[in-house]
């Protein structure tokens, strides 16, 4: 009887395990914090000669910020990049699945801080 009782309770979860929280740096660096996200999760589709914007290291900053097409410095919520990351009226990017809240918060912090090329 004890074995059955232990088996019945050993697989019970009150809640789903929390997603690990990645600390966001005080100052977000485009080259150190943002570009690596593109390199890891986006570059397979968003490379030179493929789907816009071109997120290769040599082209990504200008591709995202030129004419405020994807990024509106200081206004993440209005930026189409943010909307794609959260699925706000746009398809979720990356297509492999929605990013963690901490990755999205990192990109938003960079945009809200002026989307600097640092």
Automatic annotation (TrEMBL):
Residues 29-115 form the Cytochrome c domain. GO terms for molecular function: electron transfer activity; heme binding; metal ion binding. The lineage of its organism: Bacteria, Pseudomonadati, Bacteroidota, Flavobacteriia, Flavobacteriales. This is Cytochrome c domain-containing protein. Keywords: Heme, Iron, Metal-binding. It comes from the Bacteria. It comes from Flavobacterium alvei.
